[in-house]
Design goal:
Elements (H helix, E strand, L loop, with lengths): L1 E3 L4 E3 L37 E3 L2 E3 L3 E2 L1 H9 L10 E2 L2 E3 L3 E3 L2
Antiparallel strand pairs: 1-2, 3-8, 4-7, 5-6
Length: 96
């Protein structure tokens, strides 16, 4: 099992994590905060390394939430108001 940094989220043997990421989206205000995460405590700046990063971003307001706030309208109940992106990187090489 792996523990994801800063979130106490555990990945099981099948590579699945059942704990959702922190969600701070305020739909009515079309805002969010980004206060989660922390640096890697195992990072050794004197050691050469490479990293490959897979990221699940925190949820953020979707454009529909911004429009609802700006135009002061109620969106239909089935309108997605949040967005959660994923990102993948190529290897990141670190040389001290």
């Amino acid at each position: 099992m792996d523990r994801l940094l800063g979130f106490n989220r555990v990945i099981d043997e099948d590579g699945i994590c059942d704990t959702p990421v922190v969600n701070t989206v305020n739909i009515s205000d079309a805002s969010y905060t980004n206060t989660s995460g922390e640096p890697d405590p195992n990072f050794d700046p004197s050691q050469r390394a490479f990293y490959y990063v897979r990221v699940i971003e925190i949820p953020t307001p979707r454009w529909t939430a911004y429009d609802a706030k700006f135009f002061d309208i109620d969106m239909p109940a089935d309108t997605p108001m949040e967005l959660q992106d994923r990102a993948y990187t190529s290897p990141i090489w670190y040389t001290p």
